[in-house]
Write a structure and sequence with these properties.
Layout: H1 2-9, H2 17-33, H3 37-50, H4 54-66, H5 70-84, H6 88-101
Length: 102
């Protein structure tokens, strides 16, 4: 869905991943300017579904932490490991999740 929206926003052209990430970040910031935290959260949900990566999940979790949602941040980390599997990349996610519980 997010990729479809970005595809239409950019005139039907194929975009690089870095452009999508930048557009997503700008979209989240716009929503937060208007105190639309739930809408920003939905954008992050779509973001991790369309472009799943450790970086995407960490950004989502940090967003939740900035908004005082420690439990939701922890859930982001747990979901990331569950969806991405346990490998070298997700070790960093577990360490970040562990720091939340301290």
């Amino acid at each position: 869905m997010l990729m479809d929206v970005m595809f239409h926003i950019h005139g039907g052209t194929t975009l690089k991943t870095s452009t999508l990430i930048g557009s997503t970040t700008a979209w989240v910031q716009m929503e937060l300017r208007y105190s639309e935290v739930d809408r920003a959260r939905n954008i992050y949900e779509r973001y991790v579904q369309c472009l799943p990566s450790v970086k995407a999940w960490v950004r989502y979790a940090k967003f939740e932490m900035k908004n005082g949602q420690v439990g939701l941040a922890r859930q982001c980390y747990e979901r990331a490991v569950g969806e991405m599997g346990e490998d070298a990349q997700t070790v960093s996610i577990w360490s970040l999740c562990f720091t939340i519980t301290l």
